[in-house]
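FYI - complex with adenosine-5'-diphosphate, inputs then prediction.
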Amino acid sequence: MENIIEIEGLHFSYQSEDEEEEAVEVLKGIDLSIKQGEFVAVLGHNGSGKSTLAKHLNAILRPTQGKVTVNGIDTADDDRIFELRQSAGMVFQNPDNQIVSSVVEEDVAFALENLGVPYEEMRRRVDDALKAVNMYDYRLHAPSQLSGGQKQRVAIAGIIAMQPKCIILDEPTAMLDPQGRKEVMATIHRMNREQGITMVLITHYMDEAAQCGRVVVMDKGSVVLDGKPEQVFSEVEKLKSIGLDVPQVTELAWELRRAGYDISPGIITEDEFADAVERLFSADKQG
Ligand code: ADP
C-alpha cells in the first residue's frame, strides 16, 4: 500500500509574540509514514505535541524544518491547500465549535457548497454521509438539540461528504459521555473498514488506542514507540516512565508475568486476559 502521510525530519517551534523570548521546540524531529487505509492512534501525555503534530497534517501549521506530505501534496505548497484539506479532514474535540448551520443537513452540506459541488451531487453526498454516520433520520433537526456524540457524528459526516482519503481526529471523544464515545468510535472504525479511509486518532484513552491497528506514542515532541497495540502495550515500564497508564488488564497480566506466571505480554483486552488466565488454570490442573 502506498503512503498517504509522510513526515520527514519534522521540527516545529511556536514563535512567541515577544521577539526577545526564545522559541521552544515542540516537535523535535519526527519521522512517520502512514499507509492508505491504516487506523493509527497517537498517544501521549498532555503537552507531548500530539495536537501540534495533527495540525501539520492539514497545514494549519507548517514545519519549522522538515517536510510533511499528505496524499502526495506538500503541506507547504500554498497553491494546493484546498486540495489538501479535501484529502485530509480534521475533527476536533469540541463538537459545538464545529457546527456552522442551524439544520443538520445544511451543516453537512456547508463545505460542499463552498466548493461549488452541483446541487444533485451535493444532495446525494450529504444523504450518503448522514446515513454512513447513522444520522440520516436527524437531517432536519437543529444541531443544538443533539447529544455530544450525535454532534460529533454530524461533524464527521461533513468531512465524509468531501470524500477524503484521510481523517485526523484530535481527541474527538474527550467531551462525550460513554455512550457518545462508543458511537463515535464505532462510526470511525466502520468508515475505516468499509470506505478504506485512513484514520489518525489522537487520544489519551488507552482502550481507544487498543482498538486501533497501530499505536504511535509521543513524549516531549518525539515518537518513542510505534507498533501494533499488543507490542506497544507490552512496554509497560516505558509507558509508565512517560506518565501513561496501560490498560488495566495489561498491567494485571504484566504483574502476573513478573511474579513468574506464564502469561503472554501485550494483553490488551479483557477477553484475552480471561483466556490467558483460563490457560494458566488448566495447565495447572494437568501439571
Ligand atoms: P498535546 O496535544 O500532546 O497535549 P500540544 O501539541 O497541544 O500537546 O502542545 C505541545 C506543547 O506546545 C505544549 O508545551 C504546549 O504548551 C505548547 N503549545 C501548544 N500550542 C501552543 C501555542 N499556540 N503557542 C505556544 N505554545 C503552544
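The pocket of adenosine-5'-diphosphate is lined by residues 14, 26, 44, 46-52 (CB under 6 Å). The longest strand covers residues 3-14.
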